[in-house]
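pipeline/complex-builder :: batch 7 item 3
reading input block
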Amino acid sequence: MNRQNETILKVDDVYLSYGHVEALKGVSLEVKRGEIVVLVGANGAGKTSIMESILGVYQSRKGTVTFKDKNVTNLSADKIVRKGIYLVPEGRGVFASMTVIDNLLLGAHHNLKNAKAKLTYVYDLFPILSERRNQIAGTLSGGERQMLAIARALMSNPEMIMVDEPSIGLAPKIVSDIFKILKELNKEGYSILLSEQNVYKALKLSHRGYVLETGKVVLTGTSEELLINPEIRKAYLGA
Amino acid sequence: MSLPLYYFLAITAVYILMTWALYLPYRVAHLHFIVVANMAISGYFGGYAAINWNWPFLLILAVGLILGAVVAFIVSIAIGDAPTFAVVIVGFTFIYITKTVIENWEALGSTMGMFGIPMVNHVLLVAYLFVLVTGFFIYRFDNSRLGRAASAIFVNRELATSFGVNTKHLGMFLQTWAGAIGGATGVLYAFIMNSLFPDFFTFHIIGITMTMLFLGGYTTMWGPLLAAPVLWGLPLLLPQEVASWKMIIYGVLLIVILLVRPEGAITRQVAARVRSIVLRR
């Protein structure tokens, strides 16, 4: 069987509410192994909510989430992380008062046995983090913090990484560097579900995309298709 | 050893242990005052078992520790992952329920208190051995993956959850451990003082231990070690007229430290600096 075509994550008709506010209204999507899939949409469209419901941070009201053919709907986040999904949260989620190495080891919370090997791996990937391993994370620049957040995800030995709005607050040059890193990770075999408001860059990077509006998927297709779609071009690319 | 020195050292050990019992759940932002009720329950149990059943001290200490852990564990099923304010409210409620039960239970001496708890040899030695063992395990915890996870929960519970930290299990574990320390400390206190009064196990001890925790520093285990002897010992050296205002002094100190140095005297940075100096030598 060609593992490249294997569906690693399937979200089927998921509904999520925060009190009376319905954040997701029957969202369905899938990520194949080795794919980068991007979620596109304005603020409040439901991109973060999808990621948080996949991870079990919030319990969905209806629908199923399947990861590697196993139903993981509404499992607790610690169980889902053990299964191989990790979230790089919006705003990086770096613990500013902890050192860089403590932040990294936090990523290996369930995987301490291999922590040493994983540290070597992430230090090779991000030499700057090796140089700053004993530095307090709060003193890192925005780009370094984003690298730390991605490196922390890698420490957990994931098969799929969800990256929520990685470009927020970063200079264009740094954003390009971060996207290059994501591309490299994808080449190494990581499946990536990316939420991003920088639509052009995200579609250029990804294989497929889903467009969300007020908690619903309104459009889907390959990135090439979406890049030339007139509605997308008008709404997100200023064409 | 003179009697004043004996009591100073013995009660210092009690306060160090009780402040650590507060410190542990506070690692995940839980102000877990139930440890005071654990102290009272196990203390009274210990006194009763010694007076009426002639149980040996060490057996009572072990049972008191387990009793504290069991009570705290049962409560933690409900509040292991609760917000801080809920844990505080449950703590106060539990303390007042415990106090009311003790005050209305004749066999425990009611409001008059429990007297005649036998004196035992080496209680001071046992107390400090218990401080050493407890300190060792807290140190190991603080430098473990669970310690890191607790620090993450303290800063951002939701974020820690998204990294796969089971916040409920960790909260339950720390509350249970704190309950065990509270229980054992209750037994030690009963055998140090040889008498118990229900009024001791209320806001009085919460106020003192909370001041010790926040003044010493709540981010490391070393804060209570510094603050307990200083805050307990200082009023003993003051003239009686001033010492009787002890609780007001504690209150003022608590406010000042929260304003001036919110993380307390011994912060993580201070502890790291001391450690690096010691290691260099």
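note: Chain B touches chain A at residues 145, 148-149, 151-152, 155-156, 158-159, 161-166, 268 (CB under 8 Å).
queue -> next item
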